[in-house]
Structure formats: C-alpha cells, structure tokens
Fold Lipoprotein.
Amino acid sequence: MRVGRDVGVWVGGAVLALLACTSAASKTEAAEATVTRFFEALPSGDCAVLGPMLATGGSMRPCEEAVSEMHAHGLMLVGIVESKLDGRDGDVVLVRARVARDGNVGKEPWLLRVERQGGGWRVRF
C-alpha cells in the first residue's frame, strides 16, 4: 500500500505543478497581449482606449501626459523578447520588449512591468 500512496502524492504534486505552469503561462500571455494592444493603440493617442491599459498609482503620470511624451519620442513596439512572472508578486509579469524610439531600436530591450489591477492587466512604464 505504501507504493500506492507514494504514487498518489506524486500525481497530486504533478497536477499542482501543471496548474501552476498553466496559470503562469496564461498570465504571461495576457501581459504580452496587453503590451501589444497598448502599442497598437498608441498612435491614436486616445486615453479612453489607452488609459485602461496603463497602471495607476505610484509614479505613473496621467494618461494624457504619458501618451504625449511617448508620441514626442515616437515609441513603437518592435517585438516582445520574453516575459516571466515577478517572483515577488503573482499579479505582476515582467515583459522584456524591443522598443523603437524616434525610429531607432535600442540595443537593450525595455523592461515593462505589467500588473493586474481592477480585473485587467496594465502596463507600468
């Protein structure tokens, strides 16, 4: 009987690991999708669309001010390099993205913090 119990523990642990992996994958996919949608909508400058995708609180400036500065520098998403959960907070995904500024792609990817706030994912620059 000991073998059966050990197998049960192993299977239970494997199921928990699979659920954690699935949860992490769904979070990183949602965060990446938010970053992509944000940059796709950025040229419009419409804070009715962009505002709900921007994190609030802390050092974040009002949408109009932040978007105006992004437009002034011609920010554009080139591609997402990788994303991973922030080990300190399960509601935060760190997304590394290549961003062009004034038409020039930086040598290093930007690190964007994407947070779950108010039931959705929001980008903090």
